[in-house]
Amino acid sequence: MLAASSWTDYEILYAGSGEKYERWGNITLRRPDPQAVWPVIDSGKVISMDDLKTPSAVYNRSREGGGSWDRLSKFPPNWNISYDSLGRKLTFGIELTSFKHTGLFPEQAVNWDFCGKLIEDAKQKGKENITVLNLFAYTGAATIASAAHGADEVVHVDASKGMIAKAKDNVKLSGLEGSYIRFIADDCRKFVEREIRRGRHYDGIIMDPPSYGRGPSGELWKLEDSFYDLMKLTAGLLSDDPLFFIASSYATGITAAASGQIMDLALRDHGGKVEADEIGLPVSHMGIVLPCGQVARWTAK
Known about the structure:
Layout: E1 2-3, E2 10-16, E3 19-24, E4 27-32, E5 40-42, E6 45-47, E7 57-61, E8 67-71, E9 79-85, E10 88-94, H1 109-124, E11 131-135, H2 141-148, E12 153-158, H3 161-173, E13 181-185, H4 188-198, E14 204-207, E15 212-214, E16 220-222, H5 223-235, E17 244-249, H6 256-266, E18 273-283, E19 288-299
Parallel strand pairs: 1-18, 4-7, 11-12, 11-14, 12-13, 14-17
Antiparallel strand pairs: 2-3, 3-4, 5-6, 7-8, 9-10, 15-16, 17-19, 18-19
Helix pairs in contact: 1-2, 5-6
């Protein structure tokens, strides 16, 4: 498993019984996590999450679906945390959302470091005009990492204008206003199809598609049914001298091994090599790693 173990502003303190207890800066949150299928254990004893220190906020599921946050102490609606990505400081705005999320997936730090090192190594070897495409880009963590490590152009695509606004805020927080980042609100597949017609190419591609979604005409789709086609289509945007293709997945029906096989088949014409693994986060007080999804990563050499 690829564990994002370099955080200082974030950590999972405990995980178990379908929940996780986290620290985001100096604010603690307790929220559901379906991967935490074991009991909460502290000092060798099975305990309840209720036995721990009261968190700053807890997310309560609703019987009707969804849920809401219960704030148990006073803290600002927005606050910042930072991550040191191989010496590059990335800063993100955090807030509680109605979908139990916070605007950041800390486990993705393993991919920020991965693409960052490849970009920096290529720059040191004299590669010029490195371009990166970030699809389903959310609040822009991978966009920021690519720019911070030296990408000359990053194209950030997400269907949500609200998420793009948050990504722009994160760019400012990270001091990257001078970077060449293009923000595009669009359906990612339709954007890729247009870029292919335009003859555009990218040295690095990052995608993190949702497990479920709607197509351009409102049709429902599952990632399991679309992952290969989407990856194969997007591979047509790789440049003649590409660096990487990273595809993350949180779909429970797609294992890490399956993600790797899909990528191998979709990018076979481009040569290179594929690695695939689960990604996770250390649980500091329990000495385990919480699985948080999977990633397939292709490199040209």
